[in-house]
Amino acid sequence: MGDVTQLLADWQSGDESALARLMPVVYEELRRIAIRAMRRESVTHTLQPTALVNEAYLRLIRQERADWRNRAHFFAIAAQLMRRILVDHVRGRKRQRRGGDQVVVTLDGMGGLASPTSSGDVDVLALDEALTKLEGLAPRQCRIVELRFFSGLTVEAVAEALGISPITVKREWAMAKTFLYRELRPTREG
């Protein structure tokens, strides 16, 4: 996988052929990220993992000012883009339906986060809103959630992508999960 880092560096240096060689190398990992992200989606979701990978890849290669540090950084940005694509897709469907079916994602894959709802599902737009709020308060915690939840990266891979220690990732991951649990749990009135 060191090839990815080298291909990114070559591409950044102006070697257009590096981009053509990059896609076959990163495609399977991007597809795994997309499949993990889609597993958390409602069964009524119409976007397919392949379409998610293709859209994310197109957005990645349009990044003119990206400073690709390494393979982990590339996949971190990919996970972030996939989150945005999923949210945009849900918003588009909601506009079309004028408040139609609610699209949900499961929080079971969040490494032990107790479900904020009895079903374990949360509206993807509510999750995006909570992550946006978290980003304003603790941007690094938001990146950690994106990398762990959307990309499925290990603590070690997140640490490498963000240039911090694994213990810091674990600590901030725990704080981020607590924040999201509070933000996403249903309010009890009455």
Descriptive overview:
With 190 residues, this protein is mainly alpha-helical. The chain has one domain. Helix content is 67%, strand content 3%. It contains eight helices and two strands; from the N terminus they run ααααββαααα. The chain has helices spanning 2-12, 16-39, 49-61, 71-97, 124-137, 139-150, 155-162, 166-184; strands spanning 104-106, 121-123. It has a two-stranded antiparallel ribbon. Helix 6 (139-150) crosses helix 8 (166-184) and helix 7 crosses helix 8. The chain is globular, with a radius of gyration of 17 Å. InterPro entries: HTH_Sigma70_ECF-like, RNA_pol_sigma-70-like, RNA_pol_sigma-70_dom, RNA_pol_sigma70_ECF-like, RNA_pol_sigma_r2, RNA_pol_sigma_r3/r4-like, WH-like_DNA-bd_sf. Keywords: Sigma factor, Transcription, Transcription regulation. Belongs to the sigma-70 factor family. ECF subfamily.
